[in-house]
Design a protein that fits this description.
- By secondary structure, the chain is of the alpha+beta class.
- It has 5 helices and 13 strands.
- It has a 6-stranded antiparallel β-sheet with strand order 1-2-5-12-7-10, with helices on one face.
- It is globular and about 45 Å long.
Length: 197
């Protein structure tokens, strides 16, 4: 399997001197068409996540901060993970994080995010690589928002998350069915399938 840098160089040196840009001359998609979910999980050494899907922490800052309003102990300035939903684990169950999280799309099929803001507004966003279809390559979910992600079609969707301040399990919570019915009764029909039982 030739890597992407080789393919890009090959395209560049083979293009005519009248000169279209390499991306125009040689459009090619990345590893999402070359690797299936099992290969990605093995290659990235992903493990099951309690929120659903698979993950692996890839980075944590060398520095910590003690002045985090919601935390009693210091937090890393930032942490990052790979995260994947698959057709056999297609839901990132509805939960809240205290930290801000930036999501970056990598490969596979787009993910649909439902984001429930503190004021009760429900926002729907598609994280994927097709902006002409309304998909975003990046998605910021602010701390204090409830979110769920769903793989609606395809075998997998692979992203990364950067969390700041850094992620700790003490700073997140999964919601329960009684909580949703009590706090967001009008949204129960739309959210009920995305609650971990």
């Amino acid at each position: 399997m030739r890597n992407m840098s080789y393919l890009f160089q090959e395209a560049f040196w083979s293009m005519p001197l009248t000169g279209m840009a390499p991306t125009q001359l040689y459009p090619i998609q990345t590893g999402d068409i070359l690797m299936n979910k099992t290969q990605w999980i093995k290659q990235l050494q992903l493990e099951s996540h309690l929120e659903g899907g698979y993950f692996r922490r890839t980075y944590q800052s060398d520095y910590t901060h003690e002045g985090i309003p919601y935390a009693e102990t210091p937090r890393y300035l930032m942490t990052s993970i790979f995260y994947m939903l698959t057709d056999d684990s297609p839901i990132n169950y509805l939960h809240v994080n205290q930290a801000d999280i930036m999501h970056y799309f990598h490969a596979g099929s787009a993910l649909t995010y439902l984001i429930l803001h503190p004021d009760g507004q429900l926002e729907r966003v598609r994280l994927g690589n097709n902006p002409t279809a309304g998909e975003q390559l990046q998605l910021l979910v602010k701390g204090g928002c409830w979110k769920t992600a769903i793989l609606e079609t395809g075998e997998f969707g692979l992203i990364s998350e950067a969390v700041s301040p850094g992620f700790e399990y003490a700073d997140m919570a999964l919601i329960t069915s009684p909580d949703v019915q009590a706090r967001f009764p009008k949204l129960w029909p739309e959210l009920q399938n995305y609650i971990k039982q």
